[in-house]
Specification:
The complex is a heterodimer of chains A (about 80) and B (about 350).
Chain A lengths: L2 H15 L22 H15 L14 H9 L1
Chain B lengths: L4 H5 L5 E4 L2 E2 L11 E4 H13 L5 E4 L14 E5 L9 E5 H6 L9 E4 L6 H13 L2 E3 L7 H10 L4 E4 L1 H11 L8 E4 L6 H10 L4 E8 L3 E6 L6 E2 L7 E3 L4 E4 L2 E10 L2 E7 L4 E3 L2 E3 L1 H8 L5 E11 L3 E10 L5 H8 L10 E4 L14
Parallel strand pairs in B: 1-8, 3-4, 4-5, 7-8, 7-9, 9-10, 10-11, 21-22
Antiparallel strand pairs in B: 1-2, 5-6, 11-12, 13-17, 14-15, 15-16, 16-17, 18-19, 20-21
Helix pairs in contact in B: 5-6, 6-7
Classes of the chains: A mainly alpha (about 80), B alpha/beta (about 350).
Chain lengths: ~80, ~350
Amino acid sequence: MTALDLIRAELTQILSDKGAAMGEITPDTPLLDGPLDIDSLDLATLVVALEEKTGKTPFAGGFVLFHTAGELAALFDA
Amino acid sequence: MRKSSMRNLAASGFVLIGPDGDQSLAPASGNGPYTVDVTQMGAAGLIRALLGDGDVYAVRDPSAPPVIEPGEGRIHLQTSGTTGTPKWRAHEIAKLTQDLFAGSAPARWLLTFNPGSFAGVQVILSALIGGHVLIAPPYEASVAEMADLAMQHQATHISGTPTFWRAFLMALGDRPLDLKAVTLGGEAADQAILDALRQRFPKAALRHIYATTEAGRVLTVSDGCEGFPLSLLTDRLTLSEHGTLCVGGLDTGDVVEIVGDRVLFRGRLDSMVNIGGVKVFPETVEAFILQHPGVQDVRVASRPNPITGHVLTADMVLKPFADQNAVKAHLQGLPRAQRPVMTRFVETLPTGQTGKKLR
Protein backbone atom coordinates (compact mmCIF):
# COMPACT_ATOMS: atom_id res chain seq x y z
CA MET A 1 0.00 0.00 0.00
CA THR A 2 1.42 3.37 -0.97
CA ALA A 3 1.32 6.30 1.42
CA LEU A 4 -1.36 7.91 -0.76
CA ASP A 5 -3.53 4.79 -0.43
CA LEU A 6 -3.05 4.96 3.34
CA ILE A 7 -4.02 8.62 3.36
CA ARG A 8 -7.17 7.79 1.40
CA ALA A 9 -8.09 4.97 3.78
CA GLU A 10 -7.45 7.02 6.93
CA LEU A 11 -9.28 10.08 5.62
CA THR A 12 -12.26 7.92 4.67
CA GLN A 13 -12.31 6.62 8.25
CA ILE A 14 -11.98 10.09 9.79
CA LEU A 15 -14.70 11.56 7.55
CA SER A 16 -17.10 8.67 8.11
CA ASP A 17 -16.50 8.84 11.91
CA LYS A 18 -17.71 12.44 11.88
CA GLY A 19 -20.46 11.77 9.36
CA ALA A 20 -18.94 14.05 6.71
CA ALA A 21 -19.19 13.60 2.96
CA MET A 22 -16.39 11.74 1.21
CA GLY A 23 -14.91 13.02 -2.03
CA GLU A 24 -12.28 11.80 -4.44
CA ILE A 25 -8.72 12.22 -3.16
CA THR A 26 -6.01 12.79 -5.76
CA PRO A 27 -2.39 13.82 -5.18
CA ASP A 28 -3.47 17.41 -5.86
CA THR A 29 -6.31 17.46 -3.32
CA PRO A 30 -5.60 20.17 -0.73
CA LEU A 31 -5.90 18.79 2.81
CA LEU A 32 -7.08 21.96 4.55
CA ASP A 33 -9.31 24.64 3.02
CA GLY A 34 -10.17 22.29 0.16
CA PRO A 35 -13.13 20.09 -0.70
CA LEU A 36 -12.64 17.86 2.36
CA ASP A 37 -14.45 18.69 5.60
CA ILE A 38 -11.44 18.26 7.88
CA ASP A 39 -9.82 20.59 10.38
CA SER A 40 -6.37 20.76 11.94
CA LEU A 41 -7.24 18.19 14.62
CA ASP A 42 -8.38 15.76 11.93
CA LEU A 43 -5.14 16.39 10.11
CA ALA A 44 -3.20 15.77 13.33
CA THR A 45 -5.10 12.50 13.70
CA LEU A 46 -4.20 11.55 10.13
CA VAL A 47 -0.51 12.21 10.75
CA VAL A 48 -0.51 10.04 13.89
CA ALA A 49 -2.19 7.21 11.99
CA LEU A 50 0.40 7.47 9.21
CA GLU A 51 3.26 7.49 11.72
CA GLU A 52 1.84 4.38 13.39
CA LYS A 53 1.24 2.45 10.17
CA THR A 54 4.46 3.32 8.35
CA GLY A 55 6.78 3.52 11.36
CA LYS A 56 8.18 6.72 9.83
CA THR A 57 8.38 10.08 11.60
CA PRO A 58 9.07 12.68 8.90
CA PHE A 59 8.26 15.52 11.31
CA ALA A 60 10.63 14.35 14.04
CA GLY A 61 13.04 17.13 13.12
CA GLY A 62 10.34 19.80 13.03
CA PHE A 63 7.52 20.89 10.82
CA VAL A 64 7.76 20.35 7.05
CA LEU A 65 5.35 22.35 4.96
CA PHE A 66 2.78 20.41 2.93
CA HIS A 67 -0.54 21.36 1.39
CA THR A 68 -1.83 18.45 -0.67
CA ALA A 69 -2.41 14.75 -0.14
CA GLY A 70 0.42 14.06 -2.59
CA GLU A 71 2.89 16.25 -0.71
CA LEU A 72 2.04 14.52 2.59
CA ALA A 73 2.33 11.10 0.90
CA ALA A 74 5.78 12.04 -0.43
CA LEU A 75 6.99 12.69 3.12
CA PHE A 76 5.98 9.19 4.18
CA ASP A 77 7.20 7.52 0.99
CA ALA A 78 10.68 9.04 1.35
CA MET B 1 20.93 0.81 75.17
CA ARG B 2 17.62 1.46 73.50
CA LYS B 3 17.67 5.14 72.88
CA SER B 4 15.88 6.30 69.83
CA SER B 5 12.15 6.79 69.63
CA MET B 6 11.58 3.91 67.24
CA ARG B 7 12.37 1.15 69.71
CA ASN B 8 10.13 2.67 72.33
CA LEU B 9 7.30 3.09 69.91
CA ALA B 10 7.35 -0.42 68.45
CA ALA B 11 4.29 -1.77 70.24
CA SER B 12 3.82 -5.33 71.42
CA GLY B 13 1.52 -7.34 69.24
CA PHE B 14 3.25 -6.30 66.03
CA VAL B 15 3.50 -9.21 63.61
CA LEU B 16 5.12 -9.21 60.19
CA ILE B 17 3.68 -11.64 57.66
CA GLY B 18 6.29 -11.81 54.93
CA PRO B 19 6.51 -13.85 51.75
CA ASP B 20 7.28 -16.98 53.82
CA GLY B 21 4.81 -16.45 56.65
CA ASP B 22 5.45 -14.86 60.05
CA GLN B 23 8.94 -13.40 60.06
CA SER B 24 11.47 -13.01 62.81
CA LEU B 25 11.85 -9.46 64.02
CA ALA B 26 15.26 -9.72 65.66
CA PRO B 27 16.83 -6.27 65.54
CA ALA B 28 19.65 -5.83 63.07
CA SER B 29 22.96 -6.81 64.64
CA GLY B 30 25.88 -4.51 65.30
CA ASN B 31 25.74 -0.77 65.43
CA GLY B 32 24.09 1.46 62.90
CA PRO B 33 23.79 3.27 60.66
CA TYR B 34 22.22 0.48 58.63
CA THR B 35 21.98 0.35 54.87
CA VAL B 36 19.09 -1.80 53.71
CA ASP B 37 18.71 -2.82 50.09
CA VAL B 38 14.93 -3.20 50.07
CA THR B 39 14.99 -4.83 46.64
CA GLN B 40 16.73 -7.78 48.34
CA MET B 41 15.74 -7.54 52.00
CA GLY B 42 12.24 -6.17 51.61
CA ALA B 43 10.09 -4.82 54.40
CA ALA B 44 11.52 -7.36 56.88
CA GLY B 45 15.05 -6.04 56.43
CA LEU B 46 13.87 -2.48 56.84
CA ILE B 47 11.95 -3.27 60.02
CA ARG B 48 14.89 -5.12 61.57
CA ALA B 49 17.06 -2.09 60.87
CA LEU B 50 14.44 0.22 62.37
CA LEU B 51 14.55 -1.90 65.53
CA GLY B 52 18.33 -1.60 65.73
CA ASP B 53 20.40 1.37 66.87
CA GLY B 54 21.21 4.15 64.46
CA ASP B 55 20.02 5.75 61.29
CA VAL B 56 18.55 3.64 58.50
CA TYR B 57 19.24 4.12 54.79
CA ALA B 58 16.64 2.42 52.57
CA VAL B 59 18.07 1.74 49.12
CA ARG B 60 15.65 0.95 46.33
CA ASP B 61 17.82 2.20 43.47
CA PRO B 62 21.39 0.94 44.00
CA SER B 63 22.69 3.23 41.25
CA ALA B 64 22.45 6.12 43.72
CA PRO B 65 24.14 4.84 46.91
CA PRO B 66 23.82 6.92 50.08
CA VAL B 67 26.56 8.95 51.72
CA ILE B 68 26.46 7.44 55.21
CA GLU B 69 26.78 9.77 58.18
CA PRO B 70 26.60 8.78 61.82
CA GLY B 71 23.26 9.55 63.39
CA GLU B 72 20.29 8.17 65.16
CA GLY B 73 16.53 8.42 64.96
CA ARG B 74 16.35 9.13 61.26
CA ILE B 75 15.35 7.16 58.20
CA HIS B 76 16.90 8.16 54.89
CA LEU B 77 14.81 7.57 51.78
CA GLN B 78 15.42 7.93 48.07
CA THR B 79 13.00 10.05 46.10
CA SER B 80 11.23 8.05 43.43
CA GLY B 81 13.50 9.36 40.71
CA THR B 82 10.79 9.74 38.08
CA THR B 83 12.69 12.86 37.06
CA GLY B 84 16.38 11.99 36.96
CA THR B 85 18.65 10.42 39.56
CA PRO B 86 17.03 9.67 42.95
CA LYS B 87 17.96 12.04 45.74
CA TRP B 88 18.37 11.19 49.40
CA ARG B 89 16.18 12.80 52.02
CA ALA B 90 16.38 12.34 55.79
CA HIS B 91 13.25 12.07 57.92
CA GLU B 92 13.09 12.21 61.71
CA ILE B 93 11.29 9.04 62.73
CA ALA B 94 9.75 10.76 65.76
CA LYS B 95 8.29 13.41 63.46
CA LEU B 96 6.90 10.79 61.08
CA THR B 97 5.23 8.80 63.84
CA GLN B 98 3.75 11.97 65.35
CA ASP B 99 1.64 12.47 62.21
CA LEU B 100 0.40 8.90 62.13
CA PHE B 101 -2.85 7.66 63.53
CA ALA B 102 -2.01 4.32 65.09
CA GLY B 103 -5.54 3.25 65.90
CA SER B 104 -6.58 1.22 68.90
CA ALA B 105 -8.54 -1.60 67.27
CA PRO B 106 -6.31 -4.39 65.92
CA ALA B 107 -5.60 -3.87 62.26
CA ARG B 108 -4.16 -6.03 59.51
CA TRP B 109 -2.32 -3.74 57.11
CA LEU B 110 -1.45 -4.75 53.56
CA LEU B 111 1.70 -3.02 52.32
CA THR B 112 0.99 -2.04 48.71
CA PHE B 113 3.78 0.54 48.43
CA ASN B 114 7.48 0.00 47.93
CA PRO B 115 8.85 -0.48 51.48
CA GLY B 116 11.56 2.09 50.75
CA SER B 117 9.12 4.81 49.68
CA PHE B 118 7.77 7.54 51.94
CA ALA B 119 4.25 6.10 51.72
CA GLY B 120 5.56 2.58 52.38
CA VAL B 121 7.44 3.71 55.48
CA GLN B 122 4.29 5.41 56.75
CA VAL B 123 2.35 2.15 56.49
CA ILE B 124 5.18 0.20 58.16
CA LEU B 125 5.41 2.71 61.02
CA SER B 126 1.62 2.76 61.47
CA ALA B 127 1.61 -1.00 61.92
CA LEU B 128 4.67 -0.93 64.19
CA ILE B 129 3.53 1.75 66.60
CA GLY B 130 -0.02 0.44 66.70
CA GLY B 131 1.03 -3.15 67.40
CA HIS B 132 -0.76 -4.34 64.31
CA VAL B 133 -0.24 -7.08 61.74
CA LEU B 134 1.69 -6.04 58.61
CA ILE B 135 1.22 -8.16 55.50
CA ALA B 136 4.27 -7.52 53.32
CA PRO B 137 4.07 -8.95 49.78
CA PRO B 138 7.25 -10.05 47.96
CA TYR B 139 9.19 -7.14 46.47
CA GLU B 140 7.45 -5.74 43.39
CA ALA B 141 4.59 -8.23 43.72
CA SER B 142 1.79 -7.90 41.20
CA VAL B 143 -1.55 -6.47 42.25
CA ALA B 144 -3.06 -9.93 41.67
CA GLU B 145 -0.61 -11.40 44.21
CA MET B 146 -1.49 -8.62 46.63
CA ALA B 147 -5.19 -9.37 46.25
CA ASP B 148 -4.52 -13.04 47.02
CA LEU B 149 -2.49 -12.09 50.11
CA ALA B 150 -5.21 -9.68 51.25
CA MET B 151 -7.68 -12.57 51.05
CA GLN B 152 -5.40 -15.18 52.58
CA HIS B 153 -4.55 -13.02 55.60
CA GLN B 154 -7.82 -11.05 55.65
CA ALA B 155 -6.37 -7.56 55.47
CA THR B 156 -8.47 -4.86 57.15
CA HIS B 157 -6.48 -1.73 56.28
CA ILE B 158 -5.14 -0.94 52.82
CA SER B 159 -3.56 2.25 51.52
CA GLY B 160 -2.64 2.59 47.85
CA THR B 161 -2.60 4.84 44.83
CA PRO B 162 -5.79 5.20 42.75
CA THR B 163 -3.93 3.24 40.05
CA PHE B 164 -3.39 0.42 42.56
CA TRP B 165 -7.01 0.44 43.68
CA ARG B 166 -8.42 0.19 40.15
CA ALA B 167 -6.34 -2.92 39.51
CA PHE B 168 -7.00 -4.29 43.01
CA LEU B 169 -10.78 -4.10 42.63
CA MET B 170 -10.54 -6.08 39.43
CA ALA B 171 -8.09 -8.65 40.81
CA LEU B 172 -10.17 -9.15 43.96
CA GLY B 173 -13.37 -9.85 42.04
CA ASP B 174 -16.28 -10.63 44.34
CA ARG B 175 -14.27 -12.48 47.00
CA PRO B 176 -15.36 -11.42 50.49
CA LEU B 177 -12.97 -8.96 52.07
CA ASP B 178 -14.09 -6.92 55.06
CA LEU B 179 -11.99 -3.78 54.85
CA LYS B 180 -12.23 -1.26 57.68
CA ALA B 181 -10.01 1.42 56.17
CA VAL B 182 -9.47 2.28 52.52
CA THR B 183 -6.94 5.03 51.85
CA LEU B 184 -5.88 6.59 48.56
CA GLY B 185 -2.82 8.74 48.04
CA GLY B 186 0.01 9.61 45.68
CA GLU B 187 -2.26 10.67 42.81
CA ALA B 188 -5.47 12.66 42.65
CA ALA B 189 -8.44 10.41 43.46
CA ASP B 190 -11.22 10.75 40.90
CA GLN B 191 -14.89 10.41 41.77
CA ALA B 192 -15.24 7.17 39.78
CA ILE B 193 -12.72 5.24 41.91
CA LEU B 194 -14.07 6.76 45.16
CA ASP B 195 -17.60 5.66 44.21
CA ALA B 196 -16.42 2.19 43.21
CA LEU B 197 -14.60 1.75 46.53
CA ARG B 198 -17.52 3.06 48.56
CA GLN B 199 -19.80 0.56 46.85
CA ARG B 200 -17.38 -2.37 47.18
CA PHE B 201 -16.43 -1.66 50.82
CA PRO B 202 -19.47 0.10 52.30
CA LYS B 203 -18.32 -0.31 55.92
CA ALA B 204 -14.80 0.99 55.41
CA ALA B 205 -13.58 4.45 56.34
CA LEU B 206 -12.78 5.91 52.92
CA ARG B 207 -10.06 8.56 52.86
CA HIS B 208 -7.94 10.24 50.26
CA ILE B 209 -4.78 12.03 51.18
CA TYR B 210 -2.98 14.93 49.59
CA ALA B 211 0.70 15.06 50.42
CA THR B 212 3.79 16.69 48.98
CA THR B 213 7.43 15.71 49.23
CA GLU B 214 8.24 18.94 51.04
CA ALA B 215 5.29 19.28 53.41
CA GLY B 216 4.32 15.64 53.96
CA ARG B 217 0.64 15.04 54.55
CA VAL B 218 -1.32 18.22 53.83
CA LEU B 219 -4.95 17.13 53.69
CA THR B 220 -7.03 14.09 54.54
CA VAL B 221 -10.47 14.05 52.93
CA SER B 222 -13.03 11.60 54.29
CA ASP B 223 -16.35 12.63 52.76
CA GLY B 224 -15.99 10.32 49.75
CA CYS B 225 -15.98 13.21 47.28
CA GLU B 226 -13.10 14.08 44.95
CA GLY B 227 -11.01 17.16 45.62
CA PHE B 228 -11.45 18.96 48.93
CA PRO B 229 -13.81 21.54 50.46
CA LEU B 230 -13.21 25.15 49.46
CA SER B 231 -13.26 26.09 53.13
CA LEU B 232 -9.83 24.46 53.49
CA LEU B 233 -8.22 27.13 51.29
CA THR B 234 -6.76 29.25 54.07
CA ASP B 235 -3.52 30.96 55.01
CA ARG B 236 -1.55 27.74 54.62
CA LEU B 237 -3.26 26.54 51.43
CA THR B 238 -3.41 29.19 48.72
CA LEU B 239 -3.65 29.47 44.95
CA SER B 240 -0.89 30.84 42.75
CA GLU B 241 -1.48 33.02 39.70
CA HIS B 242 -1.07 29.89 37.53
CA GLY B 243 -3.96 28.22 39.35
CA THR B 244 -1.61 25.89 41.20
CA LEU B 245 -1.96 24.97 44.85
CA CYS B 246 0.62 26.38 47.27
CA VAL B 247 1.35 24.88 50.67
CA GLY B 248 2.93 27.28 53.10
CA GLY B 249 3.86 29.51 50.16
CA LEU B 250 5.59 26.67 48.25
CA ASP B 251 4.13 25.99 44.81
CA THR B 252 3.14 22.32 44.47
CA GLY B 253 2.75 22.39 40.69
CA ASP B 254 -0.71 20.82 41.05
CA VAL B 255 -3.30 22.78 39.09
CA VAL B 256 -6.69 23.04 40.78
CA GLU B 257 -10.04 24.45 39.78
CA ILE B 258 -12.77 25.72 42.07
CA VAL B 259 -16.14 24.20 41.19
CA GLY B 260 -18.92 25.30 43.53
CA ASP B 261 -17.73 24.73 47.08
CA ARG B 262 -15.09 22.22 46.05
CA VAL B 263 -11.45 22.45 44.98
CA LEU B 264 -10.72 19.85 42.28
CA PHE B 265 -7.34 18.67 40.99
CA ARG B 266 -6.89 19.08 37.24
CA GLY B 267 -3.35 17.81 36.72
CA ARG B 268 0.29 18.69 37.05
CA LEU B 269 1.28 22.03 35.59
CA ASP B 270 4.25 20.31 33.95
CA SER B 271 2.01 17.72 32.28
CA MET B 272 -0.17 20.36 30.62
CA VAL B 273 0.09 20.47 26.82
CA ASN B 274 -1.12 22.91 24.23
CA ILE B 275 -3.22 21.21 21.56
CA GLY B 276 -4.11 23.50 18.70
CA GLY B 277 -4.18 26.45 21.08
CA VAL B 278 -6.14 24.71 23.84
CA LYS B 279 -4.50 23.92 27.19
CA VAL B 280 -5.14 20.30 28.10
CA PHE B 281 -4.29 18.19 31.16
CA PRO B 282 -3.89 14.46 30.44
CA GLU B 283 -5.09 13.74 34.00
CA THR B 284 -8.39 15.51 33.35
CA VAL B 285 -8.92 13.40 30.24
CA GLU B 286 -8.13 10.26 32.25
CA ALA B 287 -10.72 11.21 34.86
CA PHE B 288 -13.33 11.62 32.14
CA ILE B 289 -12.53 8.27 30.52
CA LEU B 290 -12.64 6.54 33.92
CA GLN B 291 -16.27 7.57 34.28
CA HIS B 292 -17.15 4.81 31.82
CA PRO B 293 -18.07 1.66 33.77
CA GLY B 294 -16.21 -0.59 31.31
CA VAL B 295 -12.84 1.11 31.86
CA GLN B 296 -10.66 -0.26 34.62
CA ASP B 297 -7.75 2.13 34.07
CA VAL B 298 -6.32 4.42 31.44
CA ARG B 299 -3.11 6.28 30.73
CA VAL B 300 -3.33 9.36 28.57
CA ALA B 301 -0.05 10.60 27.12
CA SER B 302 0.82 13.47 24.83
CA ARG B 303 3.10 13.34 21.83
CA PRO B 304 4.39 16.10 19.59
CA ASN B 305 2.47 16.67 16.40
CA PRO B 306 3.45 18.91 13.48
CA ILE B 307 -0.07 20.26 13.01
CA THR B 308 -1.44 20.98 16.46
CA GLY B 309 1.72 21.05 18.57
CA HIS B 310 0.65 18.00 20.54
CA VAL B 311 -1.98 15.29 20.41
CA LEU B 312 -3.15 12.85 23.07
CA THR B 313 -3.02 9.08 22.95
CA ALA B 314 -4.80 6.74 25.35
CA ASP B 315 -3.87 3.25 26.55
CA MET B 316 -6.89 1.65 28.16
CA VAL B 317 -7.36 -1.42 30.31
CA LEU B 318 -10.94 -2.63 30.02
CA LYS B 319 -12.89 -4.69 32.49
CA PRO B 320 -13.81 -8.21 31.36
CA PHE B 321 -16.69 -8.23 28.88
CA ALA B 322 -16.53 -4.46 28.43
CA ASP B 323 -17.64 -3.27 25.00
CA GLN B 324 -14.78 -1.59 23.10
CA ASN B 325 -17.21 0.29 20.87
CA ALA B 326 -19.14 1.65 23.85
CA VAL B 327 -15.89 2.92 25.34
CA LYS B 328 -14.90 4.53 22.04
CA ALA B 329 -18.32 6.18 21.87
CA HIS B 330 -17.76 7.55 25.39
CA LEU B 331 -14.56 9.25 24.16
CA GLN B 332 -16.65 11.23 21.68
CA GLY B 333 -18.07 13.07 24.71
CA LEU B 334 -14.71 14.81 25.18
CA PRO B 335 -14.09 18.26 23.69
CA ARG B 336 -12.20 17.96 20.40
CA ALA B 337 -8.79 19.03 21.66
CA GLN B 338 -9.00 16.65 24.64
CA ARG B 339 -10.05 13.63 22.58
CA PRO B 340 -7.20 11.12 22.14
CA VAL B 341 -6.40 10.68 18.45
CA MET B 342 -5.13 7.17 18.99
CA THR B 343 -6.43 4.60 21.45
CA ARG B 344 -5.06 1.21 22.32
CA PHE B 345 -6.54 -1.53 24.44
CA VAL B 346 -3.84 -3.06 26.65
CA GLU B 347 -3.60 -5.66 29.43
CA THR B 348 -1.76 -3.56 32.01
CA LEU B 349 -0.34 -0.08 32.43
CA PRO B 350 3.26 0.46 33.47
CA THR B 351 3.66 1.86 36.98
CA GLY B 352 6.78 3.14 38.67
CA GLN B 353 8.11 2.15 42.09
CA THR B 354 5.66 4.63 43.60
CA GLY B 355 2.66 2.72 42.29
CA LYS B 356 1.73 5.75 40.25
CA LYS B 357 1.21 5.74 36.54
CA LEU B 358 4.39 6.52 34.64
CA ARG B 359 4.24 9.82 32.81
